[in-house]
Amino acid sequence: MHPAWHSTKKTASHLIAELQTFEAQNLEVRLSLDDGKASVPVSLVGKSGSFALLINCEASPSVMTHTTRT
């Protein structure tokens, strides 16, 4: 059984508030779909209907692998 936060959906305002708690505000933003094992950079932020989208526009996404998460 996964913790409750695994299925909690974030709103744009929740995401912004969480990012504002980071001391380093110049960190590159990346997106992971595998629990932080690998990520791709976010090229654009967009909107589709009622969803905010983090979009990677690279023809061949520059995937970065991560050994630890913080």
Radius of gyration: 13 Å
Note the overall shape.
Answer: globular
Q: Report the uncertain regions.
A: none
The end-to-end span amounts to 22 Å
Largest sheet, spatial ordering of strands? 1-2-5
Sheet-strand content, in percent, reads: 25-35%
The largest sheet, given as strand count, sense and whether it forms a barrel, is:
3 strands, antiparallel
Topology order in helix (H) and strand (E) letters: HEEEEE
Structural class: alpha+beta
Helix share, percent: 10-25%
How many structural domains?
1
Explain this structure.
- There is one protein chain.
- This protein is of the alpha+beta class.
- It has one domain (4-65).
- Helix content is 13%, strand content 26%.
- The protein contains one helix and five strands.
- It has one helix spanning 12-20, and strands spanning 30-31, 38-41, 44-48, 51-55, 64-65.
- The chain has a three-stranded antiparallel beta sheet, with no helix packed on it.
- Strand 1 and strand 2 (38-41) form a beta hairpin.
- The two termini are 22 Å apart.
- The mean pLDDT is 89.
Quick tags:
single chain; 70 residues; alpha+beta; 3-stranded antiparallel beta sheet; 26% strand; globular
Compact description:
The protein is an alpha+beta fold. Helices cover 13% and strands 26% of the residues. It has one helix and five strands, in the order H-E-E-E-E-E.
What order do the helices and strands come in, and which of them pair?
Blueprint: H1 12-20, E1 30-31, E2 38-41, E3 44-48, E4 51-55, E5 64-65
Antiparallel strand pairs: 1-2, 2-5, 3-4
